[in-house]
Amino acid sequence: MMINILTQSLWRDEAFSALLSLKGLGQIISVAASDYSPPLYYVFLHFWIKLFGFGEVALRIPSLLFSVLTAGSAYFLTKKLFSKKVALLTFFFVLLNPFLFHYAFEARMYTLFSFFAVLSFYFLIFENWPLFVLFSLLGLYSHNFMIFSLLGELIAYLFLKGFGKKKHLLVSFGGILLGFSPWVGTLFSQAREVARGFWIERPGIRAVSEALVQFLFGPSGGNSRYLIFMVLISGLVIFLWRLSASRRDKAERKKIASLIIWASLSFFSSFLLSYFIPVFLPRYLIFIIIPLSLVLAFILMGLPFRIPIIFCFLVLFLVRDFGIWGDPSKFPIREKVFTISKSWEGEPVVCESILNFFEVKYYLMRSKPAAAERIYLLSSGRVEYAGGSLVERGEICENLPEERYFWVSRSGDTYLLKN
Q1: How far apart are CA 238 and CA 91, in angstroms?
Q2: Which distant-in-sequence residues (6+ apart) come within 8 Å of 185 by Cβ?
Q3: Quick check: 100 and 117 in contact, CB under 8 A?
Q4: 408 φ/ψ angles, rounded to the nearest 5 degrees
Q5: pLDDT at 321 over 80
Q6: Ramachandran angles phi, psi of 376, nearest 5°
Q7: At residue 271, what are phi and psi to the nearest 5 degrees?
Q8: Residue 147: in which H helix or E strand, if any?
Q9: What would the DSSP string read from start to end of 77-126?
Q10: Whole-prediction pTM
């Protein structure tokens, strides 16, 4: 069954990752600069493809590996902050979290980003300054939302440790700024483009609850909102009880508070910015799952009746994971494109919209490389913020061909049209 998740059709963003990663390093950086993400993931995938190939499984395995590494990093962070028992529960909460589980099978940068974010926090809190700078920079070159993680990390560190090592902090953040300076101009340029118009809408208050629902139940967990609300309220009550029960251990309470600061400040700073530049999207904040899972594990391990509650959480996660595992959600564009490959006799392939252009090109490259040389995007279907920078000039057509051609509609349906 697992192979179904790994081999289901790529969707647009995954196909974008695959096609961009096939380019040379200079082109990868150039296209990423014109798009809305830093280039590190695509550079990594470029070399990965050279070693392991271009198929769906090969493209998605890195995300799965980084998801496991993220859970492992969360284990060591928790073990050092609290105890081995809390760390073990945190490991399973992160590993089985439905939101993270969903993106563990997607050829995108989100699990790579979450891995770097948790290591950045780890080395900051335990004051390994060189490794903090290194993993912070890796995170920044993986996803722009690392900026919000670093903001939360900084305030969490100051709350936990104070200003005693402000020289180390200044030098470290100065090193991060210096290391990221080649991309800062590009980042501001990307922000200006997003402010002019982007596919993400400005969030309302409802977006906060919807994000929390997704963090617990996965991207398609909206049907469980009332249950989630009850779980969140119950969790808050338990949390307050747990804090009151541990009043004598001020250091323990401070550590938990620092984790909440990291998560909440990262979350709400991106939320508030989105009223000016609409960028708020739960999957961009995937790293928040780590501190939330850690806090949840800490709360539950402090309860006298913890076993049945922990069991319920793990069962809840497993049920959601099996739903993702056994019911691949990507549109089966591969089968549609293969119908073109079987009957293709030199006709141009015209896509109505950029929303499926990359998938069609990817599967033509795999099944009928010659047809991939004759794929075109109707100019009216080109949208810059949907990966338009990767569409080459020669692949844009202003008018439909006069000869017979294959037509791929916006919905993904394919037709052979004769003029």
Answers
A1: 21
A2: none
A3: no
A4: -110, 110
A5: yes
A6: -135, 155
A7: -65, -45
A8: helix 146-161
A9: HHHHHS-HHHHHHHHHHHHH-HHHHHHTTSSSSHHHHHHHHHHHHHHHHT
A10: 0.91
